[in-house]
Amino acid sequence: MSNPHVETVTTSADKAKLGGAVLLLVGALVAFYALAAQGPVAQWAALLVLLAGAVAAFFTSESGKSLIAYGRDSLREVRKVVWPTPKEARQMTGYVFAFVVVMALFLWLTDKTLEWVLYDLILGWKR
């Protein structure tokens, strides 16, 4: 990551931007339901315009800028990952399935052995 030490300083302008984004979001929902009589075009237009305003207000705040920086850093890290080839992925999947089958058999055998020891040998219950 590019910024390991993060200091959070919230200014009143930043709080105002976040508050405006919340108000625009609430306004978008209110406008959508309030404009039901006007028809779906007016409803969706008001909703989309106010939501776009809320997103724009959020991304101009420090929190939005931090989110964008985090996304860029994440993409940079994903590009560094060495992904397995399809052959390697199939092999590892096969190993996992084989291990699951072996463990299932082991647990079944352990369960049946304990059942036989407890019920047949110790308690003498014959079914």
Question: Concise description?
Answer:
The chain has 127 residues and is an all-alpha fold. It has helices spanning 12-34, 40-60, 62-80, 86-122. The protein has two domains: 12-80; 84-127.
Can you describe this structure?
- The protein is 79% helix and 0% strand.
- The protein has four helices and no strands.
- The N and C termini lie far apart (64 Å).
- Helix 1 packs antiparallel against helix 2 (40-60).
- The longest helix is centred in the C-terminal third of the chain and has 37 residues, at 86-122.
Helical stretch tally: 4
- Compute the CA-based radius of gyration: 30 Å
Which spans of ≥5 residues are poorly predicted at pLDDT below 50?
Answer: none
For the secondary structure, the number of strands is 0
Strand content: under 5%
SSE topology string: HHHH
Q: Span between N and C termini? A: 64 Å
Q: How much is the average pLDDT?
A: 91
Task: Outline the biggest β-sheet.
Answer: none
Q: How many domains would you count in the coordinates?
A: 2
Helix content class: over 70%
Shape: elongated
